[in-house]
Amino acid sequence: MAKKTLLLVGRTGSGKSALANILVNKEGNFEEIFKEGGYSVSETKGIQVEKFELEGKKYQIIDTVGISDTKMEPDEVLSIIVRGCRAAKKGLNQILFVIHEKFTQEEVEAYNVLIKLFDKEVVEYITIIRTKFSNFEEEKECKKDIKLLIDEGNEIITKMIDSCKRRIIHVDNPPINIVGSGKKVEMRIALNKEIRAESRKILLKYLESCQGTYRPKSLDEINKKIDECVKKEDKRLREELRTIIERLDKLEKGENLREGDTLEMLKSQIRITEKLIEDNKKLADKGLFEVVGRGLDKLLDSSLKAAIEVATLANKCTIS
Questions:
Q1: Cβ atoms of 62 and 5 closer than 8 Å
Q2: What is the rounded CA–CA span in Å between residue 131 and residue 134?
Q3: Contacts of residue 256, Cβ cutoff 8 Å, sequence gap at least 6
Q4: Who contacts 160 (Cβ-Cβ below 8 Å, separation ≥6)?
Q5: Where are the beta strands (DSSP E) in 64-180?
Q6: C-alpha torsion 225→231→234→235, nearest 10
Q7: Do residues 288 and 83 lie in contact, with contact meaning Cβ atoms separated by under 8 Å?
Q8: Quick one: which H or E segment has residue 139?
Q9: Eight-state DSSP code of residue 31
């Protein structure tokens, strides 16, 4: 069964992680699996991926670090977002660009980054999610809000909204991790969960209508390199395993030609190498963020560096 992969991008404090929790709805109670923060510092410090299933449909959510994280350098943030994009080996179904008020300069720059990182086709898969909008259930109010955004007179923002064909979904994601106790707090949490439930219905209904998968050429090239690297690694490990088995065979026949070889050591090496071969096979079905740390990411360092350089340059550009 095919799954829909959603990438969440947004400024620190936009309600991005809260939106992810609304979509997943852990245990049917909106349990916090994506860390939500009520402050100006991003609670998400890297990529977080979660999956959920609803009525036979599978979803994968990739949450990324807040764009304007005050504790991280801009290139660090861009690097994590790039890795988040590449985490979807089979492509992205939607990029949810999360805002909570009027567009800021940082958000305009971030939007440009997405386009410059990939290509103009990506705008067909970007949806702007307007969070913390209390009148989200009123269609007239939602349309009025879009008009107000456009009527600000900012040509760049108007082009930005028009570029994704004015796909703006309004939701409200009030907090449920409220500090305190007592009946009033309990009632407030219960009400906020109801609001989240209604927001979730709107989001899922919209996502149901989203068809197609975005696969930038850059992503195909990266996945191709990963596959090639996995094959080379498999060949190397199998040759290493064959050598160890030969050494063990000679040792058992009393023909030990290598100082330091013991039965216990060689058998242990065989088990370890067999495990590495098995693990290596699994990498073919995974994205870049899952192979990082296995040494395979070094093969892609130049591609990642180039992507970050393009993204940094994009910060100085505007939509044309």
A1: yes
A2: 9
A3: 250
A4: 103, 108, 111, 319
A5: 94-99, 126-130, 168-170
A6: -120
A7: yes
A8: helix 139-150
A9: B
- For 166, list phi and psi in degrees, rounded to 5: 55, 35
Classify residue 37 by burial, with Cβ atoms within 10 Å: 0-12, 13-18, 19+: middle
What are the extents of the domains in the chain?
Answer: 3-215, 218-286
Q: pLDDT by residue (tens digit) across 173-191?
A: 888 888 888 899 999 999 9
pTM to 2 decimal places: 0.66
Decide the pairing of beta strands 94-99 and 48-54.
Answer: unpaired
Residue range 118-160, pLDDT digits in tens:
667 888 999 999 998 999 999 999 999 988 888 876 788 888 8
CATH, range 3-215: 3.40.50.300
On the CB side of 313, CA atoms within 13 Å amount to: 9
Rounded Cα distance between 167 and 146, Å, is 10
Query: Torsion-angle region of residue 13: left (phi > 0), alpha (psi -120 to 50) or beta?
Result: left
- The C-alpha atoms of residue 131 and residue 29 are separated, in whole angstroms, by 19
